[in-house]
Amino acid sequence: MNAPVKPKLRIATTSLAGCFGCHMSILDIDERLFPLLELVEFDRSPLTDIKHCGPCDIGLVEGGICNAENVHVLREFRKNCKVLIAIGACAINGGLPAQRNHLDLSSCLTEVYLTEPGLVHGHIPNDPELPLPLDKVHPLHEVVKIDYFIPGCPPSADAIWKFLTDLIAGKTPELGHGLIKYD
Amino acid sequence: MSDTFQLDGQPVSFESGQTVMQAALAAGHYIPHLCYHPEFKPHGSCKLCTVKVNGRTAASCTMPAEAGLEVESDIEELNALRRTLVQMLFAEGNHFCPSCEKSGNCVLQALGYDLEVHSAGFRHQFPDRPLDASHPDILLDFNRCILCELCVNASAEVDGKHVFALAERGNSKHLIVNAESGLLKDTNIALTDKAMSVCPVGVIIKKGVGFSIPIGERRYDQRPISEQALDDAPRPPSGAKHE
Question: What is the DSSP string of B54-70?
């Protein structure tokens, strides 16, 4: 008789106000993706192109919150994921996008789309399909409860691997010297 | 009766006039610290070096060593407190490590690594702190200032120049430059000043040399700060018996 098949953990991933660098670092675990796929399957993720998140065990969110759509996606992840992880500098402290936080949003848009030298007939985009930018960029933990944080810009593949394998093994994830990095 | 106190259950000998921190470091015991610098009078402001002395908390950098003290340092209660202090410092300033030239050589960052601080946790304040790039050779990035006062002391006590000071109180406390214009270019600071080398974070930056050490070879890439801090401490000559 065959042993009962252990159900795989379901993981969802997304990039909000990020650069997909953390997703590149996830892919950078290279051939370790194969043993990982023995243990997990992917729900919503740029890797699967599934558009909405179903019930999941782990959610990995890259990037901070810079517009209204980011808030909706993050809430969808929080609602569906038992464990929600902020991955990378932007998700944890706003990162590069948050460097606009000490600037006035309208003056940012004006400079980029209207007064920048070399622009011809520039205008501030107002298509209803475009999500409205927020006044400030926020780290994820200011919007929903975040269970774990993997710092780094991006975190190294080894850091992501260590963190996920600890978590999947039911241990409290630890990074330790060499894997914990803020840059 | 020799002059020793107990640090986490181990005897540490000390000389008269030493603080708990000085005696501990000299004897090869690390107590996490940030604003303490062996060459300057302790400031006691960052509280990272808080220990329990006979059950009561005290800053080990200002606490005089006394025979028979029972000092606790490496316990979860205090490390949790230290973690929170580091988180508050990160939330209070603009510490954007990926673009900072001090990254990898930064004491605040290295303490965060050593204490396993994964997130600032608190609401980030994102304060508005414009740079001072007026000086031809030196950049001041106030975003990263943790108000440790080391540059203030170094400039006053060693350089004899009083280039820096802290102004105002509480949340509006900030580092200022001693010139009528408020700009560094109008001071007599020099690249060879002690004040140029004491900043534990990335406020006082020498222009034109950024990111000169590759990632992987920077100071705290090599070994955690808990192993390296002892290298900086004044130690008895090697071979000398100290316990």
Answer: TTEEEETTTSBP-TT-E
Whole-complex ipTM? 0.92
* Architecture, CATH, for domain B96-222: 2-Layer Sandwich (3.30)
B-chain residues within 8 Å CB-CB of A175? 116, 118
Secondary structure (3-state) at B139 = strand
Q: Which two tokens stand for residue A126?
A: 């107002």
Least Cα separation, residue A125 to chain B (angstroms)? 27
Closest chain A residue to the Cα of B226, Cα to Cα = A177
The identity of residue B124, as a single letter, is H
B82 touches B134 (CB < 8 A) = no
CB contact under 8 A, A94 and B124: yes
Size of interface A-B (CB pairs under 8 A): 74
Half-sphere exposure of B109 (CA within 13 A, CB side): 28
Give CATH for domain B4-74: 3.10.20.740
Mean pLDDT of chain B: 93
Residues of chain B in contact with residue A141, where contact means CB-CB under 8 angstroms, are: 119, 121
Contact A175 B90 (CB under 8 A): no
Q: What is the mean pLDDT of residues A55-79?
A: 98
Percent pLDDT > 70 in chain A is 99
For the segment(s) A9-99+132-168, the CATH number from 3.90.78.10, 1.20.120.530, 3.40.50.700, 3.30.870.10 is 3.40.50.700
The residue ranges of every structural domain in chain A are 9-99+132-168
The answer to whether residue B1 scores a pLDDT higher than 50 is no
Query: Which tens digit of pLDDT belongs to each residue from A6-23?
Result: 789 999 999 999 999 999
pLDDT value, residue B234? 62
Percent of chain A residues past pLDDT 90, beyond the cut: 92
